[in-house]
Amino acid sequence: MNKIVADAQEAIEGIEDGMTLMLGGFGLCGIPENCISALHQKGTSQLTCISNNAGVDNFGLGLLLYKKQIKKMISSYVGENDEFERQMLSGELDVDLIPQGSLAERCRAGGAGIPAFFTPAGYGTEVAEGKEVRIFNGKPHILETALTADFAIVKAWKGDRFGNLMYKGTARNFNPAMAMAGKITIAEVDELVEPGELDPNFIHTPGIFVQRIFQGKDYEKRIEQRTVRKLAN
């Protein structure tokens, strides 16, 4: 039951060219920085990456984009990465843009074993092209399929050797759903604690969903958009 691995390099063993990865995080909050850096250094390529965002230039998934290690992005918000824009417009990168709520639910459904669901989001737009439409309560809905991955890579605040995880703040937006949807789930954490130190009432991801865990290091935890206001006189 001890799922601890030494570091990110050991954690990503088995990730091969052409695989599909889920990577948690919201903007630059709660992203698995150590594992992304390890993949960047290893040079694993032809990846399909499922992530709410595509990082920024030269940070987060932006590192993998810069080295052209990603062949396809399945994302929601991608507006902060110039290299992503360049590759998408030039046709170098295959992109599937999904409404944010639909992306979250497709990941959650994958982890819950639900193959597909109907949602009104995206009806009447390019998102709905080629998808089944049904009417519920007088409103058209499109059929969206669940998402799963060969590996899910998440970032948590605290975890124990059994793989139980707690997230903090905005990091809970996508990490918990993605942790459930990977065939193998890797968790990097700020703090690796002893079993019993985590209050069972506040565990967000039970250890049954996690196969590998390690304590990360040297996190930058960048702020994507810093907004300030002047203090009133």
From TrEMBL:
Pfam short name (any one): CoA_trans
Source organism, top-level taxon: Bacteria
InterPro entries listed in its UniProt record: 3-oxoacid_CoA-transf_A, CoA_trans_fam_I, CoA_transf_BS, NagB/RpiA_transferase-like
Originating species: Reichenbachiella carrageenanivorans
Family classification: Belongs to the 3-oxoacid CoA-transferase subunit A family.
PANTHER family associated with the record: ACETATE COA-TRANSFERASE SUBUNIT ALPHA, KETOACID-COENZYME A TRANSFERASE
Keywords: Transferase
GO molecular function list: transferase activity
Name recorded for this polypeptide: CoA transferase subunit A
